[in-house]
Design goal:
Layout: H1 12-20, H2 50-60, H3 63-73, H4 101-106, H5 108-119
């Protein structure tokens, strides 16, 4: 949108959609490393229909659904039979930063302040 020259975010899939619409954006993976933000699914301990939930989770992680999420949603998948859209940088070509959730939790307020300082938000 031209509001900022740089975006530091975990929304790679949004930029993929923008590129598909021919918006003038480029994705750059820093040589120092890129954080990996994963999604998860869980089954509640007291779910009213646990078998239905298990079936839904199986559906979510099936090859067909994971391929659809990659193709239509611009997401990534760890499913071994899912292929990336042409032009996407494979995950094995991106240097990933090591994750330390406990250290991130301790640094939350400091990170928020730095983000606001750097990006004017």
């Amino acid at each position: 949108m031209g509001e900022r020259a740089v975006e530091a975010d975990g929304l790679e899939y949004v930029l993929i959609h923008m590129q598909e619409k021919r918006d003038p954006v480029a994705i750059v993976y820093p040589s120092e490393g890129t954080p990996l933000i994963t999604g998860s699914v869980a089954l509640a301990d007291k779910a009213p229909h646990p078998n239905a939930a298990r079936l839904f989770i199986s559906f979510l992680f099936s090859r067909q659904t994971q391929q659809f999420m990659c193709d239509a949603g611009g997401m990534r998948s760890f499913h071994p039979d899912v292929t990336l859209k042409p032009g996407r940088t494979p995950l094995h070509e991106i240097k990933l930063l090591p994750a330390d959730p406990e250290a991130q939790e301790r640094a939350t307020e400091s990170l928020k302040q730095k983000y606001a300082e750097y990006f004017g938000t």
